[in-house]
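Quick one before lunch.
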Amino acid sequence: MKNFSELGVEQSLLNAIQELGFENPTPIQEQTIPVFLETERDILGLAQTGTGKTAAFGLPILQLINPAARHIQSLVICPTRELCMQISRDLASYSKHKHGINVVPVYGGASIEGQIRDIKRGAHIIVATPGRLMDLMKRKAININEVNFVVLDEADEMLNMGFEEDVEYILGHTPAEKRVCLFSATMPKAIRNIGNRYMNEPVEISVGKSNSGNANITHQYAVVHAKDKYAALKRFVDFNSEDIYAIIFCTTRMETQDISDKLIKDGYNADCLHGDLSQAQREKVMGRFRNHAIKILLATDVAARGIDVSGLTHVIHYHLPDDIENYTHRSGRTGRAGKLGVSFTLLHMREGGRLKDIERISNIKFEKVLIPSAQDVRDKKLLAFTDTIINTEVEEGVFDAHVMKGIESLMALEKEELLKKFLSLELRRFSVDFANAPDLNINPNERGGAREGREGGRDRDRGGDRGGRSGEKRIFVSLGKKDGFDIRSFKDWVAASSNLSWQDLHVDVSGVYSFVDAQESHVDAIIKSLNGITYNDRPVRAEVSGDRRGGSGGGERRTYGGGRSGGGSYEGGRRSGGGERPSYGGGERRSSGGERRVREGGRSDSAPRSEGRFSGGRRSEGRSGDSRSSEGRSDRPRRRED
Ligand code: AMP
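Model of the adenosine monophosphate complex:
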């Protein structure tokens, strides 16, 4: 594989991408950059979002721009405002050390006068959505008679959105001797036609179905009744709340808004993005999502186009998309830049056929998972809580005489009693009726929707890299993130230590401990290879999860030893202290990942108190229920942009 320098990228650009952490070119970059720099050919690229195509065309374009020539030399046309802004931002960051290049984004929904002023100030590269560019051309506010390069990005999406005529109009007003570079995630006839009409024997580049082939993405689904979908979504989110950063895809704008409203009302840190929002509202939501002020973004396919957010832990499909290829588009937003991600689908019984179509056409393997029980959720949250306690640094300064008095009164209690009281209190914060919360999974063998019985606590979803497959056992290991592990490195380490392959293992890495799920036949080998060894001077304990209870049998009760805490272990079972409370009051919940409170089963508590966490600000911009009245069933509008 060649590096960027060997592909011919100049030093100023190399410096910038090095600062961005680009070490090696992605396949599309490796194939595209030399064609751009060393030939005069047009390029027809089959590539999806997330493959690095912006740099694939952006770097050579920036390199070939002459900053001294003060006219528009390159035109990048893309379907949405978000993508337009994203590409402009990317080009600006790549050219950080190459001075004198002006990149101007022009898109609908923002003041055209401001954009005209920006163009007049001198633009070398225009990044544009088709409608706005055409508008500017008709007003004679832009001159594209001298462009050398035209890039059509996400061409299939532009056609889907009804921009075909606009794109043709624009191309028809560019000089004949320009070069054209077209990227598309799919290659329908209409795109080939544009290729034939406006390109001259293009070099065809394909990086395959990169997203579907992305080994970093785990594709999961759970089958639920339609009426339970929202409850199942909440369970899934609750179970993963420690570090969730997700986009939830909905089908229509109305659904997007409704689910978002419900989640916000239920105390989740969520917001939504769809075509009924104003440009200012969208930008605000995107900004908040990008800086993690919002952890869960509900979006329609169209609104999510061009969102480039790194580090998504999950893509959740509240419904499968109409278009099979959209599934790979959606899921390709997670599992980027070497990180692991989960693409999770909430499925109705009747949608099973569509899942099979996706498997066949996109070459994806789905694994069925179960929606976690309320008890699973509670166990996980308590683990996170105990984890937080173990990792809390004690600040001696705060222990003045008054505080010490409080401590003294607590010292009168036995250690175990104190800890039980402590955890009971925490449990009350989870406003979940664990004992009565229903199992939300459907047993596919019992048509008519009979509930599937749980086989102990091992039936669980895998919102993360988590076990639960039949015949698997769970092993507790006393190492975790504190020891420098993440899922990938922990899996590598366990695989290497026990001489097994990645496929044999599923892991869940927490702060000071982790779990390994593996087939029963591998369990001894794993425990033998790990138990008793030392890792970075720490003795490692590995045992079948639950064994410390002294033969409790079955997976339902698990003992999660804190390892270091000496007595701080928590017995996560139905019968453990506080677990059977019929209900919990809805006090404010602070979980370690957590800016939210759990309210299971539609418990109607008071509205969230902590305004700052929720999107109060945006709502005051006047988004109201009537914005939905124009809602159609499909969120595939024509000419959405302007
Ligand atoms: P794109 O397909 O252009 O939207 O890029 C997807 C993501 O990959 C963006 O966050 C880029 O910053 C990142 N990226 C692009 N090229 C590279 C590279 N060579 N190495 C690492 N990350 C990259």
